[in-house]
Specification:
The complex is a heterodimer.
Chain A lengths: L1 H20 L2 H19 L6 H23 L1 H5 L2 H7 L4 H30 L5 H25 L5 H27 L1 H26 L3
Helix pairs in contact in A: 1-6, 2-3, 2-6, 3-6, 3-7, 3-8, 6-7, 6-9, 7-8, 7-9, 8-9
Chain B lengths: L6 H14 L4 H25 L13 H28 L3 H32 L8 H22 L4 H28 L8 E2 L2 E2 L3 H42 L2
Helix pairs in contact in B: 1-7, 2-7, 3-4, 3-6, 3-7, 4-5, 4-6, 4-7, 5-6
Chain lengths: ~210, ~250
């Protein structure tokens, strides 16, 4: 029970910070709409529905990267990491709290992005929404762990996309497959990815923040 | 423990360790000779013994090179992940360097796989790159993944914290291999020639012998390169430590 309380306290801290500073979410919203606008001009008229759906996944992935790059910056710059690691809570709670906060930002951005996509390009079906929800979990789980690694490096903004994109290939495959109409199998694959990499990230986070 | 010893004792210990290392070079020489012998035998078997493929002709012989190189790359990544696990599990400090060297060799063999796969694709399908060839796409993803491993390693300052991060990332890689393979297989139709099936290898005896010798040659080559690079890295670390102690 204390674990859940720790996680919710840490997630609330991030949401509260965002509510006061309004740094991440507004830039995500502007970024995703700007990306969709660029895509409108990048693809020729009468492009197939499937190609447009592929672009939606690219836009969502890059928007998520924006949130993940920012995720641990406050912790590093204000030297909060040391305090968090010293806190009498399980270290994986730090990861889970942060992942939940990033997930909240991402879902908030998608609540705007998906209707915008439907208005700009073509409609989206229930499979796409389900795939986006499942992909969000995987993106936040893996991305939060890699974000904690990337902020320790010198080239942090540069490093995260390099670390994350190869791991995101299966998510894009599952997402595009599910929204292109093949449904079930791909949703199952996304759930499998979430389970495998979720557990792995949860278990590995302790080693990433430990000093020795 | 080293920090509380007197500098003279540390100097002596480091010098002794550096002097004792060349003894291990005998093993490198044996491995090197084995690798050269096996590679020569493999080349002889590939060009003079293995039968020419009825379907693909002479170009099929690159199979004996391409597939062992790819399997060796998997062995490198697996070995790197095993050493990474030891870093996290047993807190084995020397395993960090071993994991790095294994992954470095894996990237070299991975690049060779992409290159030979591309040549084979050109020879048999007339294109340099085929997105419908699952193994090649998987290697591209892995290649990008392990390139990021080096970026991570050179971006973070050396120390136990970096060893932990690199180990975690290396373990992610070994999980990514089957997951990506499944993903790529889901994403496209399967046209890669399937040589190994559940019913055993679909090869004649001569082909299988050539393949096994090639695989052994590649593995011996990996073992040699691994030992040489590890010895070099260790000598480098010893020298740095000696210099730091002498300049104190």
């Amino acid at each position: 029970m204390t674990y859940i309380a720790d996680v919710s306290a840490l997630a609330r801290k991030d949401l509260l910070l965002e509510l006061r500073a309004k740094e991440t979410l507004p830039s995500m919203l502007v970024f995703v709409i700007a990306t969709l606008t660029i895509f409108h001009f990048a693809v020729p008229h009468g492009t197939r529905h499937v190609a447009a759906l592929g672009l939606l996944w690219v836009a969502l992935l890059f928007t998520a990267l924006l949130a993940l790059t920012r995720a641990f910056v406050a912790e590093r710059e204000e030297r909060l990491f040391d305090a968090l690691v010293l806190a009498p809570c399980d270290r994986s709670a730090i990861w889970l709290g942060k992942a939940l906060a990033v997930l909240a930002f991402l879902v908030a951005a998608e609540v705007v992005a998906l209707p915008a996509f439907a208005a700009f390009f073509s409609g989206i079906d229930a499979h796409t929404v389900a795939a986006v929800a499942l992909a969000d979990v995987g993106i936040c789980a893996v991305g939060t762990l890699l974000g904690a690694m990337a902020v320790a490096g010198r080239a942090r903004e540069l490093l995260l996309p390099l670390l994350f994109l190869p791991l995101a290939v299966p998510i894009v495959v599952g997402g595009v497959g599910a929204s292109a109409g093949a449904g079930g199998r791909y949703l199952l694959f996304l759930a499998f990815y979430d389970a495998v990499f979720g557990v792995l990230s949860w278990a590995a986070f302790e080693y990433v923040v430990a000093e020795t | 423990m080293a920090a509380i010893r007197a500098p003279e004792q540390r100097l002596e210990a480091t010098t002794m360790a550096a002097v004792a290392r060349p003894i291990a070079q005998n093993r490198v020489a044996v491995l090197g000779l084995a690798a050269v012998g096996l590679l020569a035998a493999a080349l002889a078997l590939i060009f003079f013994y293995a039968p020419t493929d009825a379907d693909q002709g002479f170009s099929q012989r690159i199979f004996y090179f391409h597939v062992p190189v790819a399997l060796t790359a998997y062995v490198c990544f697996g070995w790197g992940a095993w050493k990474a696990l030891r870093v996290l599990w047993k807190r084995d400090e020397s395993a960090d360097m071993q994991s790095y060297v294994a992954i470095h060799q894996g990237v070299v063999f991975g690049a060779l796989t992409l290159l030979t796969g591309s040549i084979w694709a050109k020879a048999s399908w007339g294109v340099w790159w085929s997105w419908s060839e699952n193994q090649l796409v998987l290697f591209l993803v892995l290649f990008l993944f392990y390139c990021a491993y080096f970026m991570l390693r050179y971006s973070v300052e050396a120390g136990p914290s970096r060893a932990n991060m690199c180990a975690v990332y290396a373990l992610f890689g070994v999980v990514l291999i089957p997951v990506s393979f499944l993903a790529i297989r889901l994403s496209q139709k399967f046209i890669h020639p399937v040589v190994f099936t559940l019913h055993g290898p679909q090869m004649t005896g001569a082909q299988f012998l050539t393949f096994c010798v090639s695989l052994a040659a590649m593995l011996a080559l990996f073992a040699t390169l691994y030992a040489v690079e590890l010895a070099g890295k260790r000598a480098d670390a010893d020298l740095r430590e000696l210099r730091a102690l002498l300049l104190q």
